[in-house]
From TrEMBL:
InterPro entries: Med7/Med21-like, Mediator_Med21. It is found in: Nucleus. GO terms for biological process: regulation of transcription by RNA polymerase II. Keywords: Activator, Nucleus, Transcription, Transcription regulation. It comes from Athelia psychrophila. Component of the Mediator complex, a coactivator involved in the regulated transcription of nearly all RNA polymerase II-dependent genes. Mediator functions as a bridge to convey information from gene-specific regulatory proteins to the basal RNA polymerase II transcription machinery. Mediator is recruited to promoters by direct interactions with regulatory proteins and serves as a scaffold for the assembly of a functional preinitiation complex with RNA polymerase II and the general transcription factors. This is Mediator of RNA polymerase II transcription subunit 21.
Length: 112
């Protein structure tokens, strides 16, 4: 019983960590879509939109000395490693045993 509770604690902890991972991902996407400027990723696809300079973070904040992008990536990677560790610490699943419940009509027919 105590071991089962320990497994449930790990599952609850894993659930919490996954929720935090999703929060980090959601916050990162929100930041990137609201505070990053548009850049051209291919010569074939032009930039069709520009943000006002006060609406996006300058390069030194995003990639330079303040490195918001690096912080976002680090937070995401650390949380993903924590989730991976918790998954690895879960016990191996026990082999399934088929449970057959025979109803009374089946018994009367001799199927039990």
């Amino acid at each position: 019983m105590i071991q089962e509770l320990s497994h449930m604690d790990r599952i609850t902890q894993l659930q919490d960590e996954i929720q935090q991972l999703l929060t980090i991902m959601s916050s990162s996407i929100a930041y990137l879509t609201s505070r990053a400027n548009f850049v051209q990723v291919s010569e074939e696809v032009p930039i069709t939109k520009q943000r006002n300079p006060d609406k996006f973070d300058p390069p030194d904040v995003f990639e330079g000395k303040f490195a918001n992008k690096k912080e976002l990536v680090t937070d995401l990677a650390v949380k993903a490693k924590q989730v991976e560790y918790l998954i690895q610490s879960l016990p191996e699943p026990e082999p399934c045993r088929a449970v057959v419940v025979v109803s009374s009509p089946a018994r009367s027919l001799g199927w039990s």
